[in-house]
Amino acid sequence: MAAVVAAAAALVIILTGVASLLGLRESLLHQVDIRLERATSAPAFDGPGGGPPGGGEDLNPLNLPGQEVGTVLLRDQSGSGIVTDQFAVGELSEAQADTLRSIPADSRPRTVRLPDLGSYRVVAWNDASGTSVTGIPLSSVNATLRAAAARQALIGLAGLAVISTLCAWLIRRELRPLNEVAEVARSVSATPLDRGEVQLTPRSRIDDTATEVGQVGHALNTLISHVEGSLRARHASEQQVRNFVADASHELRTPLASVAGYTELLRTHDLSPEDSAAALGRISAESRRMADLVEDLLLLARIDASRAEQSTLVDLGQVAADAVMDAHAAGPDHRFELDIPLDEAGQAPDFLVSGNEARLRQVMGNLLTNARIHTPVGTVTTVSVRAKDTEIVLTVSDNGPGIPADLLPRVFDRFSRGDASRQRTSGTSGLGLSIVAAIVRAHGGTITASSDHGACFTLRFPRAHRPASTGH
Predict the structure, then answer these.
(1) Kind of pairing, strands 352-355 and 335-339?
(2) At 171, is the pLDDT very low, low, confident or very high (cuts 50, 70, 90)?
(3) Which cofactor is essential here (predicted)?
(4) Which of the residues 16, 46, 138, 317 could staple to 351 if both were Cys, CB 3.0 to 4.6 A apart?
């Protein structure tokens, strides 16, 4: 960057210097032309026919006072000569005279090079006495131009050095924050990202998007945050898998041990038909339990994998009403109530969501089964459905003992159980609420649990609408 700026500055300095030297040369040549005109207007040329006044044929204008040293003259009438100093006139060589004779007599000043004399500014003209040529040396002009060029070069080099130094300093100052950005990048690259929980704490303080360097720092911070979020999600997923495998192994250990024990009992003991039937019954029950557990695990795996399922418009009000009726039949010793507002005509409005009806019915069934199993006889469970502007809110609440405080934060975790009423003897796998939460999330909804006066589950789904009908 500094080299580019220095090159541009050098080009500007060179062009400026050349332009100024050309202007100076033109000015100096103009002054020489004025002196040349004075030289040709000397009194020696003022006589009749351009000759000397008073008829002196041998009067040489070079002998007149005021002629510059180095002035040359060539006349058909007077011959040729050169002023060698203030009091002497010398003869021109034949080569010098021939050069002067070759100049067109058009009264126009021009620059020529005389042998052994150098550059001259000369003018030739015709008069009654013949052709005359007068010239003035350009040695002083050339010396002035050389001195000016030397000064321009020195000034240009000094200016270029100053500009280069200033540009380099400014560029280093502006790019200095990049060192911090690079240090942050090096720190992140040195962090092991292939295992465990990763914390990418380094961030660039240079994130002002109004500057180019700040944009780089901001982009780096965004990249680090994205990578950190992805790594955190990976770690959480790995931890969830580890916990899930451990819990599943623990859950399967008991039924497997029971099956193995009863099988060994049947193999090694001569049991009565009644005892054999009881052992086979236990083996069958534990096998069904393991099958149900595996089915629940497969269901959770499918939901977690976000496998696309058939989606239709589902009326949550109708789903809730059917679930309450099923719960009445399954648990007549509990009370189940439905709270749905009716319109002026006494009809229930639509509570439409977009989703899989079978899965949504499974959500309601699991919640009401959970309430029936984990609450005492006579508990009242209320299902209410309300429509908001953009969502459908479904609430399942009961007046039972509620959810233990230590279980509430992890009530939707897999294999979560609380007190004795929630142990394996209750016939549940510990995956019911996990399945409910997974299905709700798969439908773009949320579910929360509270336990102020009994258990309360609040589900929120994005509201859907029937497509507008078009008439013809």
Answers:
(1) unpaired
(2) confident
(3) a divalent metal cation
(4) 317
Helix (H) or strand (E) holding 393: strand 391-398
Q: Is 6 left (phi over 0), alpha (psi -120 to 50) or beta?
A: alpha
Contacts of 42 (CB under 8 A, 6+ apart): 61, 64, 66, 67
The amino acid occupying position 279 is A
pLDDT of residue 207: 65
Residue 379 to residue 257: CA distance in whole angstroms: 36
Measured from the Cβ of residue 251, the count of other Cβ atoms closer than 10 Å reads 20
Report residue 277 as tokens. Answer: 């039937």
Q: Is 449 helix (H, G, I), strand (E, B) or coil?
A: strand
Which of 23, 20, 4 has the alpha carbon at shortest distance from 153?
20
**246 token code pair:** 């451990």
> Side chain identity at 140, as an amino acid letter?
S
- Confidence bin at 58 (pLDDT 50/70/90): very low
Is the CATH number of domain 312-462 3.30.565.10?
yes
pLDDT band, residue 271 (cuts 50/70/90): confident
pLDDT per position as a tens digit, 8-44:
777 888 888 889 889 988 998 888 888 888 777 655 4
Phi and psi at 210, nearest 5°, equal -75, -15
Q: The sheet that has 391-398: what strands, in order across it?
A: 335-339, 380-387, 391-398, 456-462, 446-450
**pLDDT cut 90: percent of the chain above it:** 19
The region of weakest confidence among 126-140, 158-172, 302-316, 394-408 is 302-316
What's the CATH fold of domain 193-307? Helix Hairpins (1.10.287)
The number of residues making up the chain comes to 472
Nearest-angstrom CA–CA distance, 443 and 461: 7
pLDDT band at residue 429 under the 50/70/90 scheme: low
DSSP designation for 338: E
Percent of the chain at pLDDT above 70? 81
Pick the CATH number of 48-137 from 3.30.1370, 3.30.450, 1.10.860, 3.90.580: 3.30.450
Residue 367 tokens read as 């919640």
Are residues 72 and 134 in contact, defined by beta-carbon separation less than 8 angstroms? Answer: yes
